[in-house]
Amino acid sequence: MSSSIPLFQKFGYRFSWVGMIGLSIILFWGIMALIAPHIIPHPVGEIVDEDYFGAISSRFWLGSDYLGRDMLSRILMGARYTVGISLAAVSIACFSGIVLGMTAAVVGGWFDAALSRFLDAMNSIPGKLSGLVVVAAVGSSINVLIVTLAVIYTPGAYRFARALAVNIHAMDYITVARTRGEGILYIIGSEILPNITGPVLADLGLRFVFIVLLLSGLSFLGLGVQPPYADWGALVHENIGGLPFGAPAVIAPSLAIASLTISVNLLIDNLPQKIRDRSA
Asked: Where are the domains of the chain?
């Protein structure tokens, strides 16, 4: 008996229930990131509880933090920064890496060699170390975080896209396209890109997870999103003192990070079979 969902089978996609669960959680956090300012029960910076690290109650569904602020409101607003910054960074990194990788594979020669060696050198620097150095030196504004994270993960996206593009570029139909006199833009856009879409989407999802974890790590060290704003990593950092009390102020944002990253992995592992077949 097939575990796929009939709704997606009508459109030629075979999507498992596990993939749908992952997709549903991702969509939930994406929607929360968009509508959070309109649904949070309390202003994120307002002290609404007389007791710090307050317990879960009918008024405070996830308790309160170290200052008595509502944790549910802060987690929902934190989704805007965790999801938003990570999505912007991974979009820039993957777009830059894919374009450069395909171009290097098609052009070849000195351009390919020089670009590959330069990005290899960048890739050899540990991501967290370079992120710490840049953010500590320049500052941790949202724009700096996005650019820093994008630069860190562009070399990996480039290597992955170039490896795929080199294999496709060796195919006979690429030779035929060159014989017809097609240019580089046509070969990249019409011949190579459609044939690497599936693996590229999977790689984008993985890099999104890496960026979420790196951003959370930077925020936990105090170098991420700065007060009064906070992403999920910053929420863990500022409430870590409440862990001995068993307060949900530490557990809840940690579970939010885990739910998002695990869901992306579940979705990647259960991509519709039609996408896999197309990219095979």
From this structure: 45-259
The answer to whether the beta carbons of residues 233 and 145 sit under 8 Å apart is no
Q: Residue 1 has what pLDDT?
A: 41
Beta partners for residue 47, in sequence order: 69
Q: Would you identify the CATH topology of the domain 45-259?
A: MetI-like fold (1.10.3720)
CA nearest to 233, candidates 245, 244, 242, 221: 221
pLDDT score recorded for residue 27: 95
Q: What is the pTM of this model?
A: 0.86
Amino acid identity of 131? G
CB atoms within 10 A of CB 22: 23
Instruction: Name, in order, each residue with C-beta under 8 angstroms of 7's C-beta and a sequence gap of 6 or more.
Output: none
Ramachandran class of 246: left when φ > 0, alpha when ψ lies in -120 to 50, beta otherwise: left
Give me the DSSP letters along the chain.
---B-HHHHTTT---BHHHHHHHHHHHHHHHHHHHHHHH-SS-TT-B--SSTTPPP-SS-TT-B-TTSBBHHHHHHHHHHHHHHHHHHHHHHHHHHHHHHHHHHHHH-HHHHHHHHHHHHHHHTS-HHHHHHHHHHHH---HHHHHHHHHHHHHHHHHHHHHHHHHHHHTSHHHHHHHHTT--HHHIIIIIIGGGSHHHHHHHHHHHHHHHHHHHHHHHHTT-SSPTT---HHHHHHHHGGGGGGT-HHHHHHHHHHHHHHHHHHHHHHT--HHHHHHH-
From the list 229, 87, 240, 223, the residue with the least C-alpha distance to 150 is 87
The sign of the dihedral angle between the CA atoms of 85, 148, 94, 183 is positive
Per-residue pLDDT of 163-194, as tens digits, reads 999 998 888 888 888 888 888 888 888 888 88
